Task: structure prediction
Amino acid sequence: MKFKSYDRIHQSQKYLAPLGKIDYRSQFGGYSLAIGNVVFAMVSEGELYLRACEESETYFFSKAAPPLIYNKRGRSIVLNYYRVDEDLWRNQEKLLQLSHDALINARREKAVRKTQRRLKDLPNLSVNIEIWLWEAGIADLRTLKAYGARRSWIKLRSVKKFVGVKILLALAGAISGIHEAALPAVTRQELLEWYQRYEQRHRR
Result:
């Protein structure tokens, strides 16, 4: 059954009531759902999308859940939110658990952002790269460091197919707090060799 967005919002408020009072507002062509000004879900075209986090990433991947795509001036932007399917709606306990994980992670990231520099303030990273990282689900230095340069680059490559080895080196430098030209020779060589192997595997 196809839901209208307002019906889906009200259903979400009902099912997820144990998490707290859910407010909503227009955002990204749909509606963001928030508890205490912390956004943890989106509703678009009658579908609920949960913000992805480390705890839920495996579940959504196993279900091949489609991400939320926002079209801005003819450009498609993949957001770090994944669609809740009918199976998950029927499993209210699991839905509540994943929603709770999304909310807790969003709160944590918001708190970290208040105490840390923005990504664009790190060496080698521009505003554009910061936006690309946000779209890939990397919103702060803590997450960037946790993933590391290689995994962060792979996630970035999934939303920006054109990124190359220069961005990989830039990420490595940003994590270390240095300009990419100052990366140790051994580190640089390891990254270059890894990049070449990655490109060869994915050209087949």
